[in-house]
Amino acid sequence: MIADRLQLINRCLLANCSYGLSDGQTVIVDSEKLSKALLCLSEGWREIILMRYFLQLRDKQMGALLGKPRTTVNYQKNAALKQLRTEMEKMNDEE
């Protein structure tokens, strides 16, 4: 089931920036702003965001793939979202 979800990433044919995940899959992000904001995250946090919101994996599934406890994945996801929000707001202020 997780392997099926990981294959979904190959169907994400959006167009600006691509990100490689540790399992060899690639996510392509269409939004230039989102792509830039994602680059501000650490590689680990970026991977968690991409797995959650592009592959639609749950914390427990991400934890199993990343070798981390579910609670750690949840904490890192929330911290990454907070930083991502901050980066997006900075970009909006610059316009």
Q: What's the rounded overall pLDDT mean?
A: 79
Number of strands: 2
Helix content: 55-70%
Structural class: mainly alpha
Biggest beta-sheet profile? 2 strands, antiparallel
Order of helices and strands: HEEHHHH
- Please tell me what the overall shape is: globular
Q: What percentage of the residues does DSSP assign to strands (E)?
A: 5-15%
Radius of gyration, Cα only, in angstroms?
Answer: 13 Å
Overview of this protein structure:
The protein has helices spanning 2-7, 32-39, 43-53, 59-66, 70-94; strands at residues 17-20, 26-29. It is mainly α and 95 residues long. A two-stranded antiparallel ribbon has the order 1-2. The longest helix is centred in the C-terminal third of the chain and has 25 residues, at 70-94. The radius of gyration is 13 Å and the shape is globular. The termini are far apart. Mean pLDDT is 79; it is low at 4-16.
Give the SSE map.
Layout: H1 2-7, E1 17-20, E2 26-29, H2 32-39, H3 43-53, H4 59-66, H5 70-94
Antiparallel strand pairs: 1-2
Helix pairs in contact: 2-5, 3-5, 4-5
Give a quick summary of the entry.
With 95 residues, the protein is mostly helical.
Please give a handful of descriptors for the protein shown:
61% helix, mainly alpha, 5 helices, 95 residues, globular, 2 strands
